[in-house]
Amino acid sequence: MAEIRLRGLSKSFGSNSVVRNVDLDVKDGEFIVLLGSSGCGKSTVLRMIAGLEKVTDGEIWIGGELVNDEPPSSRNVGMVFQNYALYPHLTVAGNLGFGLAARRRGRGRRAAREDERRQIRETAELLEIDHVLTHRPKELSGGQRQRVALGRAIIRRPDVFLMDEPLSNLDANLRERMRLELAQLHRKLRITTIYVTHDQGEALTLADRIVVLHDGQVHQVGTADDVYDRPADTYVARFLGSPGMNLYTLPPARIGDDLVLADGALRLPAAALPPGAGDGRPLSIGIRPEHLALAADPPGGPVSQGPRPAGSGDFPAEAAGTSPPDGATTAGRTVLRCRVDILERLGSHLLVHGSLSTGQTVIARLDAQAAVRQGEQIVLTARTADTHFFDPDSGDRLVTASMPQLAGARA
Known about the structure:
The chain is α+β, with helices and mostly antiparallel strands.
């Protein structure tokens, strides 16, 4: 096992810069996930660590040694690819033992073969594929093929595992099961691992820390809770979560002790704002769908105003007022007024897609039994502690008392 340090790591193909100034420290035995959309540079970072891509600028340190000029064979890393890369003419045992053949030199032939058979057997038992050692890849399921690919990396006892979207070719149910098996395997072996994926479910399940990349740059490094609960910027806020965070950038107007945006479409207590925010300047606000709750009906009548007129984008006059309905919210909560456009009933929960009077959309994740009808107007509320604030120009998160700055956020 080994620590990994990346310092100013950059990669360009001609004039196209795909990785820019990546700094990262990976602890011995840590499981790091590089997370980002396609084309963000995550696989290129992995390939540079493996020695499969030449570094344009920066340094790669593995186990305290600078390895920029070392060939892949000298870095003692085990790599697992997206497409398994198994030899179709070899059995499972042959595939597992293929990388051990070069190590036989200088040793007694019989002793080397006995040691190889022992390592194959132990690795197969660890991955629960010892019953298919005589099978060829075409006779295996997708999960078994993936275990063979993992075993071929494990059997060499590398200092570092590098995994490039190893589960992306599996169906959804198998992928979920395999990521749990990977987590259990890492707990057993405790080998330093860097894992590349675009799947946030894999990242949140597997990672000790997540590195969120976009456009070749690191946007945030932190635990699953850090990046989900305190996103460093609006990109991380949108990317993490399914659905992603609701984000609004609107010019504010202060009324009394509240900050009212867009003629009452969104209201929040001024005391919750970051220092200096709100005084007539634009402000970006974010709320995750699962942090929104349906407000109680106000005394004297329901919140619903009936079906939306065909072709109308306007709210009734009473809905566009600047005062929230009595009893619809409690002190210290953020309030949104919206019209229900689409309902997605997903069994365990209900996704409500609505629109504010500004035309902007809102998504709320409510209880499956929530009394909501398409076309009606509703009031949604969230705790101010669950309301995020961002600079509308840079997109960076603004610090509040309830949302302090975290280490690993982009400077």
